[in-house]
Amino acid sequence: MRKIRNREDVMKKHTADGDVYILAIESSCDETAAAVVKNGRQVLSNVISSQIALHTLYGGVVPEIASRKHIEKINQVIESALKEADMTLEEITAIAVTYGPGLVGALLVGVAEAKALAYAAGKPLVGVHHIEGHVSANFIENEDLEPPFVCLIVSGGHTHLVIVKDYGEFEIIGRTRDDAAGEAFDKVARAVGLGYPGGPKVDKAAQGGNKHAIEFPRAKVGDNPYDFSFSGLKSAVLNYINHAKMTGEEIVVPDLAASFQNAVVEVLVTRTVLAAKEYGYDKVAIAGGVASNTALREGMKEACQKAGLKFYYPSPVYCTDNAAMIGVAAYYEYIGGSRAGWDLNAVPNLKLGER
Fold first, then answer.
1. Could you say which of 107, 180, 313, 347 is the most buried, measured as most Cβ atoms within 10 Å of its Cβ?
2. Strand partners, 349
3. Is 65 annotated as a binding residue?
């Protein structure tokens, strides 16, 4: 696949080929989403049908229920996205879909729908890696952002530190050795009674707490300074909660939430800024659901300012799962020559950089 190296090359493609309109579909977990994206940076529509209220009843995502809900909602969401963009399927240049990683049943709903639409309308099909989509969310509102840069990807299932070498080209330099950051948020929130989804609940509770009230450990991973580990921190918080319950000690939830969150954020920020400085990049971005966390955004912004680095982040609506980010990623894949065949399938454990 030929890489598109800079904005000048992109504009040349526009001049030669005309505007590119991507209809994107996202169904990797518990959001059924569709969007229309023009030329990789302009979101014409971004429709999301969330299942959070449904899965809250079970304390987390139930895969079978998620798949059934996707089947129920996907056509409505696509129709709404086209209507909001004031476009017909015939006017769309290509159809894109998340094909991994994620819940296999949920992914299959989106992949099957995208293949059917592309085949029926005679449109090219582009398969998109979900994490590439999260990284690409940064391009929507940051007109000056272009590769290369360092990006921290933090979500319920992933914690990666990557160098974005080019559009769609990544080098993973750090990752979690155990729990993802978002997973730790969910488990701590559940243990302290804040409920699901854990990230926003902890963030909200922490805003009224003292982040220095409880000293929780910061894990050091020996052989790679850019790797992460959150299982020890999670265990320390759970042990603190259990000990308090056994001894009758009051648990000040805002203080606990703020102290836990501070421990997570400190590690994420420190290693991301270190990577940018050591690898010689002057731009840092964050992506994924946890990128909407207030403390992480503020902490990274402050650290980047001190280090003389430019800091980029998406609006919260583009941090959580959405199809606009998939449309952005698909655009750069499309103009670089990437096309999926009719044998495109869901790959639940797809690694970043795999095809």
1. 107
2. none
3. no
Same domain, 188 and 309: yes
166 is in an annotated binding site: no
Q: Is 5 helix (H, G, I), strand (E, B) or coil?
A: coil
Find the helix or strand (DSSP H, E) in which 27 lies. Answer: none
282 assigned binding-site residue: no
pTM of the model: 0.93
- 135 assigned ligand-binding residue: no
Q: Is 289 annotated as a binding residue?
A: no
Cis peptide upstream of residue 200 (ω within 30 degrees of 0): no
Per-residue pLDDT at 265: 97
Burial class of residue 215 in the structure, from the number of CB atoms within 10 Å of its CB (0-12 exposed, 13-18 middle, 19+ buried): exposed
Confirm whether residue 243 is marked as ligand binding: no
Which structural domain range is residue 262 located in? 146-313
Strand partners, 126: 96
Q: Per the structure, how many domains does the chain have? A: 2
Q: What is the dihedral of CA 120, 353, 28, 339, to 10 degrees?
A: 0
150 & 133 share domain: no
Is 73 part of a structural domain of the chain?
yes
The predicted-structure confidence for 181-235, as pLDDT tens digits, reads as follows: 989 999 999 999 999 889 999 999 999 999 999 999 998 777 899 999 999 999 9
Is 193 marked as a binding-site residue? Answer: no
Q: Is 337 among the annotated ligand-binding positions?
A: no
Cβ burial 168-190 (10 Å sphere, 16+ → b, else e): bbbeebbbbeebbbbbbbbbbbb
Q: Is 161 in the same domain as 116?
A: no
252 is in an annotated binding site: no
pLDDT of residue 222: 73
Residue 3 has pLDDT above 60, yes or no: no
242 in a labelled binding site: no
